[in-house]
Write a structure and sequence with these properties.
The chain is an all-alpha fold. The protein has a domain of 25 residues. Helices cover 64% and strands 0% of the residues. It has 3 helices and no strands. The chain is rod-shaped, with a radius of gyration of 24 Å.
């Protein structure tokens, strides 16, 4: 089904996302992979030090 130029232009001009639920959901916090891995390593070392005590 071909769309008219007006329908395409309206879609481009409209700033609202076509799916209404997407705008309502908060984005995933953007953490760097390095930071996540570093924190996991600290937790792992803390577990090992507690097991040794």
């Amino acid at each position: 089904m071909p769309k008219s130029i007006d329908a395409i232009a309206e879609t481009v001009r409209n700033t609202k996302h076509p799916f209404r639920q997407v705008d309502d959901r908060p984005g995933k916090p953007k953490k760097h992979r390095y930071e996540r891995r570093k924190i996991k390593e600290y937790l792992r070392q803390a577990d090992w030090s507690q097991q040794g005590v």
